[in-house]
């Protein structure tokens, strides 16, 4: 069959004589053809900041985007900047696709990050904070308080705050204390009233207390004081008999990049637990201080923390605007996006008697494509696994778990299945960054319940999103498969945009059977029919598909490439797209975050368009679509176009074949790339320009709002039938 011939060719099983995978650096393409990946990431976070600056968005959503920006930047420093510094210090090669010296790259990062952090602070001070105040949510300074409010707050301080504070002196008997990463601290200079000697103390702002202390409430109007302000103005209680000379907030970011030599350890879990402990004491990489910090205090911090002036960020307070996440608890729906209620996918909707849908029957009828969060995770993926756990005809369940929530019904379904006597295999990726400790806990809980838990392959992260159910039907074993683009996490499924394909296709079932066997064994099988699998053959398969579009364009046949990813960095993929563009192939890239590709460069990429869309939901799905001379080859899956995804992770893409699903994906792309849709456009020099309003000032179409409308329309159409 043509389908299998094409797919096999994509996996390297066909004759290679007619196609050679090109080298990453091709003499026909200019040397400066890539954008710097780190600066591109900072440009992504700038787009997040632009949402916070947008006066058309609801006030609490703007505050939330400020918090997201801060959280994103923390991770960028803890991982990306930390990784670059570690490689420089240890003499390892520093990966860079722009041919610049590592120190130059760090200097550019520092310059861009400084500018962004100042812009972020200004957005809070001059834009979002005043708007919140106008809407009845005031974040005050201590000077704004009335006397009776100060009295009430002092009582709160004495009862709830003072008992948990731990001032740490710095003197010959007390060495400079350890400063934990991302903690908010006060640097305090005091004078001993008896000796006249000046001393220094550090006070950590307790992270377990509310960051914003409620001052008063009158209906919907509420007033808050930052916790550090409350502490700072009651320091006399902490240092009786001392004169408080000065106090300033500061915050330290540490290197939390993890490195484990898996081939040199006998027990991955033990090695990982040791590395988690070490990560707490990673070297400092960024010091944030309030702009009014005196030179004496700053010099002490620089000396004791062994940090350079370039790594200091002077900012107007308050520091650590992640605290704005706390405002999400406020019951002010008028200051948020209008709610989107996920619908149940048409195939999984209850029957005429309002009985719960039989998931297996629905999948047997036809493949089901679900689009989260527009379509419910609970009534699709979760229901699929819960029904499998209870169904007496289900013999086995196999699943990958990369990130999941602490009270996950997915984990509970696997436990229930194991306790019911089914064969259950859970491939838990314990190396999922910043979820390592939680994943270890859940892996052990699964093991205690009788689940067969494996941790993947040495040297690779298992990032693919797969669930496979084996069910006995009339004496025959049938496979039910789910391949997704996002994690099996009910909480993030409400804010992450993702696709998932349910199918009873025998070929997909055989592919997943082989893949799970290899994941729990020793090697990755390369001969799949409906899957493209990394690390061995996914890049090569995509390069073949891209090159086929190039050849079709040269032959005058229909050709087009559409790719939706979180990141576009891999040089070989980018070069292949450049060559396709040179041959006349229209290439549309929809990227959320990093993009090292330069679009619109004459003679190289004038046929390439790059757009980015950010909004209430995190665009997270990956789609790869190729016109293929009228026989579309379209894949969804877990892989971004990055070295780590293509070389150091187990990733899987599945081919989507149903005509209605191909149309749904095509329509979504049409909407995203339409000039009438609000988006950011990437220029050839790496500049992103926001297009949110038409020439006459009208708001452009919001893709996520329109998608929800389209999903609801499909449901209503089904109800009418």
UniProtKB/TrEMBL annotation:
<comment type="function">
    <text>Catalyzes the reversible transfer of the terminal phosphate of ATP to form a long-chain polyphosphate (polyP).</text>
</comment>
<keyword id="KW-0808">Transferase</keyword>
<feature type="domain" description="Polyphosphate kinase C-terminal">
    <location>
        <begin position="531"/>
        <end position="695"/>
    </location>
</feature>
<feature type="binding site">
    <location>
        <position position="620"/>
    </location>
    <ligand>
        <name>ATP</name>
    </ligand>
</feature>
<dbReference type="Pfam" id="PF13090">
    <property type="entry name" value="PP_kinase_C"/>
</dbReference>
<dbReference type="Pfam" id="PF17941">
    <property type="entry name" value="PP_kinase_C_1"/>
</dbReference>
<feature type="binding site">
    <location>
        <position position="496"/>
    </location>
    <ligand>
        <name>ATP</name>
    </ligand>
</feature>
<dbReference type="InterPro" id="IPR036832">
    <property type="entry name" value="PPK_N_dom_sf"/>
</dbReference>
<keyword id="KW-0067">ATP-binding</keyword>
<keyword id="KW-0418">Kinase</keyword>
<dbReference type="InterPro" id="IPR025198">
    <property type="entry name" value="PPK_N_dom"/>
</dbReference>
<feature type="active site" description="Phosphohistidine intermediate">
    <location>
        <position position="463"/>
    </location>
</feature>
<comment type="similarity">
    <text>Belongs to the polyphosphate kinase 1 (PPK1) family.</text>
</comment>
<feature type="domain" description="Polyphosphate kinase C-terminal">
    <location>
        <begin position="358"/>
        <end position="523"/>
    </location>
</feature>
<feature type="domain" description="Polyphosphate kinase middle">
    <location>
        <begin position="149"/>
        <end position="327"/>
    </location>
</feature>
<keyword id="KW-0479">Metal-binding</keyword>
<dbReference type="Pfam" id="PF02503">
    <property type="entry name" value="PP_kinase"/>
</dbReference>
<keyword id="KW-0547">Nucleotide-binding</keyword>
<feature type="domain" description="Polyphosphate kinase N-terminal">
    <location>
        <begin position="34"/>
        <end position="140"/>
    </location>
</feature>
<protein>
    <recommendedName>
        <fullName>Polyphosphate kinase</fullName>
        <ecNumber>2.7.4.1</ecNumber>
    </recommendedName>
</protein>
<dbReference type="InterPro" id="IPR024953">
    <property type="entry name" value="PP_kinase_middle"/>
</dbReference>
<dbReference type="Pfam" id="PF13089">
    <property type="entry name" value="PP_kinase_N"/>
</dbReference>
<dbReference type="GO" id="GO:0008976">
    <property type="term" value="F:polyphosphate kinase activity"/>
</dbReference>
<feature type="binding site">
    <location>
        <position position="72"/>
    </location>
    <ligand>
        <name>ATP</name>
    </ligand>
</feature>
<dbReference type="InterPro" id="IPR003414">
    <property type="entry name" value="PP_kinase"/>
</dbReference>
<feature type="binding site">
    <location>
        <position position="592"/>
    </location>
    <ligand>
        <name>ATP</name>
    </ligand>
</feature>
<dbReference type="InterPro" id="IPR041108">
    <property type="entry name" value="PP_kinase_C_1"/>
</dbReference>
<keyword id="KW-0597">Phosphoprotein</keyword>
<feature type="binding site">
    <location>
        <position position="403"/>
    </location>
    <ligand>
        <name>Mg(2+)</name>
    </ligand>
</feature>
<feature type="binding site">
    <location>
        <position position="433"/>
    </location>
    <ligand>
        <name>Mg(2+)</name>
    </ligand>
</feature>
<dbReference type="InterPro" id="IPR036830">
    <property type="entry name" value="PP_kinase_middle_dom_sf"/>
</dbReference>
<dbReference type="InterPro" id="IPR025200">
    <property type="entry name" value="PPK_C_dom2"/>
</dbReference>
<keyword id="KW-0460">Magnesium</keyword>
């Amino acid at each position: 069959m043509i389908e299998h011939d094409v797919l096999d060719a994509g996996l390297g099983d066909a004759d290679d004589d007619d196609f050679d995978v090109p080298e990453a650096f091709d003499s026909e393409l200019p040397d400066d053809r890539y954008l710097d990946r780190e600066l591109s990431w900072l440009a992504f976070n700038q787009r997040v900041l632009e949402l916070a600056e947008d006066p058309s968005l609801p006030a609490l959503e703007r505050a939330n985007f400020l918090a997201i920006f801060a959280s994103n930047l923390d991770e960028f420093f803890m991982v990306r900047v930390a990784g670059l510094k570690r490689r420089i210090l240890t003499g390892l090669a520093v990966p860079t696709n722009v041919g610049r010296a590592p120190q130059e790259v760090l200097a550019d990062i520092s310059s861009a990050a400084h500018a962004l952090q100042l812009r972020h602070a200004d957005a809070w001070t001059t834009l979002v904070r005043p708007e919140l105040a106008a809407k009845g949510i005031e974040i005050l300074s201590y000077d704004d308080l009335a006397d009776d409010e100060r009295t009430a707050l002092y009582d709160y301080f004495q009862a709830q705050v003072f008992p948990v504070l731990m001032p740490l002196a710095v003197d010959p008997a007390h060495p400079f204390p350890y400063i934990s990463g991302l903690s908010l601290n006060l640097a305090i200079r005091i004078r001993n009233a008896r000796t006249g000697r000046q001393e220094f103390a550090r006070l950590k702002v307790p992270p377990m207390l509310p960051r914003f202390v409620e001052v008063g409430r009158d209906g919907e109007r509420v007033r808050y004081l930052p916790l550090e302000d409350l502490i700072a103005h009651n320091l006399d209680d902490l240092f009786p008999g001392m004169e408080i000379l000065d106090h300033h907030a500061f915050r330290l970011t540490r290197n939390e990049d993890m490195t484990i030599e898996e081939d040199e350890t006998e027990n991955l879990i033990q090695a990982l637990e040791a590395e988690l402990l070490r990560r707490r004491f990673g070297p400092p990489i960024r010091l944030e201080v309030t702009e009014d910090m005196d030179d004496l205090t700053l010099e002490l911090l620089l000396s004791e923390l062994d940090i350079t002036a370039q790594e200091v960020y002077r900012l107007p307070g308050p520091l650590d605007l992640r605290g704005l996440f706390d405002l999400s608890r406020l019951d002010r729906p008028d200051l948020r996006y209008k709610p989107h209620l996920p619908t149940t996918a048409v195939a999984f909707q209850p029957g005429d008697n309002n009985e719960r849908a039989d998931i297996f029957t629905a999948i047997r009828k036809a493949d089901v494509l679900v689009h989260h969060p527009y379509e419910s995770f609970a009534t699709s993926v979760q229901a699929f696994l819960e029904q499998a756990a209870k169904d007496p005809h289900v013999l086995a369940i196999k699943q990958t778990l990369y990130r999941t929530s602490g009270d996950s019904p997915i984990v509970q379904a696997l436990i229930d299945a194991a306790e019911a006597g089914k064969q259950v295999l859970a491939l838990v990726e314990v190396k999922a960054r910043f979820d390592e400790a939680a994943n270890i806990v859940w892996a052990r809980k699964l093991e205690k319940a009788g689940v067969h838990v494996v941790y993947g392959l040495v040297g690779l992260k298992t990032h693919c999103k797969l669930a496979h159910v084996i069910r006995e039907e009339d004496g025959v074993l049938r496979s039910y498969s789910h391949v997704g683009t996002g994690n099996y996490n009910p909480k993030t499924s409400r804010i992450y945009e993702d696709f998932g394909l349910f199918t009873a296709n025998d070929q997909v079932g055989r592919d997943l059977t082989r893949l799970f066997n290899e994941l729990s064994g020793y090697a990755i099988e390369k001969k799949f029919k409906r899957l493209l699998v990394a690390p061995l053959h996914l890049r090569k398969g995509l390069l073949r598909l891209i090159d086929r579009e190039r050849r079709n364009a040269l032959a005058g046949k229909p050709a087009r490439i559409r790719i939706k990813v979180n990141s576009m960095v891999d040089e070989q993929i980018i070069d292949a797209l450049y060559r396709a563009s040179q041959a006349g192939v229209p290439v549309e890239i929809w990227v959320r975050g990093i993009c090292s590709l330069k679009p619109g460069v004459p003679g190289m990429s004038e046929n390439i368009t790059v757009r980015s869309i950010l909004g209430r939901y995190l665009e997270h799905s990956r789609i790869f679509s190729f016109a293929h001379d009228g026989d579309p080859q379209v894949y969804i899956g877990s892989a971004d176009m990055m070295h780590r995804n293509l070389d150091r992770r187990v990733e899987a893409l599945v081919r989507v074949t149903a005509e209605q699903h191909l149309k749904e994906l095509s329509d979504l792309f049409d909407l995203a790339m339409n000039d009438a849709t609000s988006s950011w456009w990437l220029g050839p020099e790496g500049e992103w320009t926001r297009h949110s309003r038409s020439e006459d000032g009208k708001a452009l179409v919001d893709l996520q709002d329109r998608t929800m409308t389209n999903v609801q329309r499909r449901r209503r159409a089904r109800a009418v039938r």
